[in-house]
Backbone:
């Protein structure tokens, strides 16, 4: 029985591996070797997992899609179909493992690994990506299910700006302005479909969107946006038996939560600079849970961007997006207030902040702007940063109230900088041992990983 299980699982993996190998053209020897190594790794990994008596689900799928061109360069070079394959390993939700999953309809957690050809071997090459994801059930019956799948990870591309024409500019038909660094962020969201054939085997498909870029760590950085579809199969190592029970006794342990997060990273502002600048931010905010999985609040952000030196600079007189007459510290600061949205998943939280600049000296530092602007004004995002900003981030509580956070700051759909930082949470809860009179509420700081002693000692009995 287990041998049959091994054969079925390996068959799914091998189908994808063969597809990967065919996609990697022989003219690209580096990509071909990478694909072969991935094949060997997947075979060994799937074989190892198949002998383990865990409730994993293995998925193999073929991948097809196309790049949505959002720049002149991509309109020229993104002509072919994106083809490849993906293997994923999922851990089904169980009630006794993580209580937070009940508020998300008991989602599956997984890790995906894929290899795709970007449709232009000479300029775009291939991409390998790996990402953890969450698959949230939306509709489910005895035989079929529809899930919302979201994931974030890293990708490796085999072709960058430096493998093509770097002299004719970012719009040239012979340039690759999508990637200037081989390692990039990978974001994906999709609708996932399953049809159960028996207790172990299911057909599976995805229709979704993915994005790859480096967040302006290196420039040029147009990245790629891909609309894709997947079709394959899922295999449960243990027969399907969904064991999930809602426990009404579990809930968030705090009434509201303050937080402070300090972040920093590096970015380039223009590919001709060949210079990297330090960027950083300090966020302070407060949120209150609206439900057991979502918290809403507000906060303040102080940003530092070392790229706002004198512009155009003596080193790069052709970059004239900004007109900054002198290099001073005040030009490198921005201050804003934001609406904070948090999607809580146990130790993880997904962060979506939408803010408005209250202090922004750069809003007047454009060649076409004369005079002083107010807080709100009309602008073209292709020519200016604008008066609003967005932060997309993932926060993980490492120990007690200490957290690490990584994310990206954007102006509309344009990435400005990556953020990697640390922080501290200050959750406050209503004391359980105060007077019955609810008007006299007292709050105390809650510590996640600290077990409090009982409020009243139990006397020893001789």
Residues:
């Amino acid at each position: 029985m287990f041998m049959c299980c091994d054969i079925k699982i390996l068959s799914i993996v091998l189908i994808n591996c063969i597809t990967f190998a065919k996609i990697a053209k022989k003219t690209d020897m580096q990509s071909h070797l990478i694909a072969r190594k991935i094949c060997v790794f997947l075979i060994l990994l799937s074989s190892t997992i198949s002998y383990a008596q865990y409730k994993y689900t293995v998925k193999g799928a073929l991948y097809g899609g196309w790049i949505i061109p959002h720049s002149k360069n991509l309109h020229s070079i993104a002509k072919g179909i994106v083809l490849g394959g993906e293997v994923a390993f999922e851990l089904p939700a169980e009630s006794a493992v993580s209580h937070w999953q009940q508020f998300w309809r008991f989602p599956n957690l997984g890790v995906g690994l894929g290899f795709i050809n970007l449709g232009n071997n000479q300029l775009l090459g291939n991409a390998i990506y790996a990402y953890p994801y969450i698959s949230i059930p939306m509709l489910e019956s005895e035989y079929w299910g529809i899930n919302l799948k979201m994931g974030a990870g890293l990708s490796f591309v085999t072709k960058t700006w430096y493998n093509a024409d770097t002299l004719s500019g970012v719009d040239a038909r012979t340039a690759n302005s999508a990637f200037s660094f081989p390692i990039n962020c990978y974001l994906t969201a999709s609708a996932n479909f399953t049809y159960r054939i028996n207790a172990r085997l299911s057909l599976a498909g995805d229709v979704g969107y993915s994005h790859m870029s480096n967040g302006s760590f290196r420039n040029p950085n147009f990245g790629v946006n891909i609309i894709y579809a997947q079709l394959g199969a899922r295999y449960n190592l243990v027969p399907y038996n969904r064991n999930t029970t809602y426990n009404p006794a579990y809930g968030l342990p705090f009434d509201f939560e303050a937080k402070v997060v300090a972040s920093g990273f590096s970015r380039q502002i223009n590919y001709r600079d060949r210079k990297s600048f330090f960027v950083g931010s300090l966020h302070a905010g407060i949120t209150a849970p609206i439900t057991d999985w979502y918290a809403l609040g507000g906060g303040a952000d102080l940003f530092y961007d070392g790229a706002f030196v004198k512009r155009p600079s003596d080193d790069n007189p052709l970059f004239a997006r900004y007109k900054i007459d002198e290099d001073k510290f005040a030009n490198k600061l921005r201050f804003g207030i934001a609406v904070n949205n948090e999607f809580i998943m146990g130790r993880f939280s997904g962060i979506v902040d939408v803010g408005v600049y209250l202090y922004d000296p750069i809003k007047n530092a454009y060649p076409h702007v004369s005079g002083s602007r107010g807080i709100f004004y009309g602008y073209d995002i292709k020519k200016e940063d604008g008066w609003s900003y967005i932060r997309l981030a993932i926060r993980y509580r490492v120990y007690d109230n200490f957290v690490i956070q990584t994310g990206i700051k954007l102006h509309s759909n344009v990435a400005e900088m990556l953020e990697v930082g640390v922080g501290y949470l200050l959750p406050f809860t209503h004391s359980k041992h105060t007077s019955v009179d609810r008007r006299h509420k007292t709050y105390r700081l809650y510590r996640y990983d600290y077990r409090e002693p009982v409020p009243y000692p139990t006397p020893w009995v001789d």
Observations:
- The first strand starts at residue 57 and ends at 67.
